[in-house]
C-alpha cells in the first residue's frame, strides 16, 4: 500500500499560512503575561497542529473526528475555532485532570484518565489524535503511541510535538532531568531519530517532521516581523534536531492491523 504523500518541512516553512496568528483573540492568559507581539514563536505549537489538521480535512473532504490528549485549558481547540476551522464531527478531550475552564469549551466529550495507566485505551477510533507537549512528561512515551495507533482509523494520524535535542545527547540528558524532575515535569528527551523509531515500533510511518525555531524570546520585537518567523521555521526545517522544538505527524497505514 503506497504511503500518502507528505508536506515537506520546507514547504511548510515557506507556504503555510501565518495569517491565522492575527485571528487569535485569547481570553485566557496563556503564557504568564499578555500577548505583546504579532507572531509569538511560542504559539507555533498550535500553528503546526492547525495546519496538520487542516491538511487532513482537505485530504478527506469531510469533517474530522479528533481526540486531543492533554488539553490543559483548551488552547488547541480555541486556536482552531479562532482561525475559523469548523470541519469537526467530534473533538474529544482526554486529560489526567479536567480544568474548570473546559466546562464551556465546546468539547464533544471530556474524559478524565491517566494515559500512563497500564489499562488506558481509547474506546473509539479517530481521524486525528493530538498529543501536543504531552509525551515528554511520560516515562514510556513509546508505549502510549503504540496504544494510540489502535485508536486511529486506517490512514489516521497522530500529531504532536515537544522539545528536541541531538541524538547523541538524548540518553545523557534524559538521565539527568529524571534526577531532578518535579511532579508532571519533563522526564523524556527526544531526537528526530527517536521520533522515527517511535513511529516504526508503533506500526506507523512518519509523514511530517520539522523543527520550529532558532531563537525564542517571548516579547522580543522581532516577533512582530513575519520574516523573522519564516527564518525560524526555515532553520527548523534544515536543522530539526537544533530547532528548539519539533513537530510531527505519524500516519497509520491502511494495511496496519492491531
Helix content: 25-40%
Strand content: 15-25%
Cα(first) to Cα(last) distance is: 17 Å
Summed over residues and divided by their number, the pLDDT gives a mean of 92
Number of strands: 7
Which class of secondary structure composition applies to the elements?
alpha/beta
SSE pattern, N- to C-terminal: HHEHEEEHEHHEHE
Number of helices: 7
Any chance you could write out the topology, listing elements then pairs?
Elements: H1 9-15, H2 44-60, E1 64-69, H3 75-82, E2 88-95, E3 109-112, E4 126-132, H4 141-149, E5 152-163, H5 170-180, H6 192-201, E6 204-211, H7 226-238, E7 245-252
Parallel strand pairs: 1-2, 1-4, 2-3, 4-5
Antiparallel strand pairs: 5-7, 6-7
Helix pairs in contact: 1-7, 2-3
Question: How does this structure look, described?
Answer:
The structure is a single chain. Helix 4 (141-149) links the parallel strand 4 and strand 5 (152-163). Strands 3-2-1-4-5-7-6 form a seven-stranded mixed β-sheet, with helices on both faces. The protein starts with 8 loop residues before the first helix and ends in a 6-residue tail after the last strand. The radius of gyration is 17 Å and the shape is globular. The model has no long low-confidence stretch (mean pLDDT 92). The chain is of the alpha/beta class. It has seven helices and seven strands.
